[in-house]
Amino acid sequence: xxxxxxxxxxxxxxxxxxxxxxxxxxxxxxxxxxxxxxxxxxxxxxxxxxxxxxxxxxxxxxxxxxxxxxxxxxxxxxxxxxxxxxxxxxxxxxxxxxxxxxxxxxxxxxxxxxxxxx
Length: 118
Fold this sequence. Notes:
- This protein is mostly helical.
- The protein folds into two domains: 1-66; 75-117, no CATH class.
- The chain has helices at residues 2-65, 75-84, 88-93, 100-106, 111-117.
- The longest helix is centred in the N-terminal third of the chain and has 64 residues, at 2-65.
């Protein structure tokens, strides 16, 4: 009987040790999976940053290679000019005491100013 009790105690200790060992293994597996997931996320983030940097560099090269834009005529002036024959330059020139020559020189990009020089 005493031998059986000792055997039961040994088996109980073994079972408890195995249970602790399995729990430790599960913990290690979980930690490894978390580590792998974090590494994967870091790789993806680095790849994304690299792609974005390459795209940005490509856009910069394209912009640097593009010819400079021509001075734009204000869209509002285009619409008003077509509909009413009046532009911002006309409105500025209508002010009492306006220096028309200076206005034309300063506003060369405006349609009315270009037409006046022709």
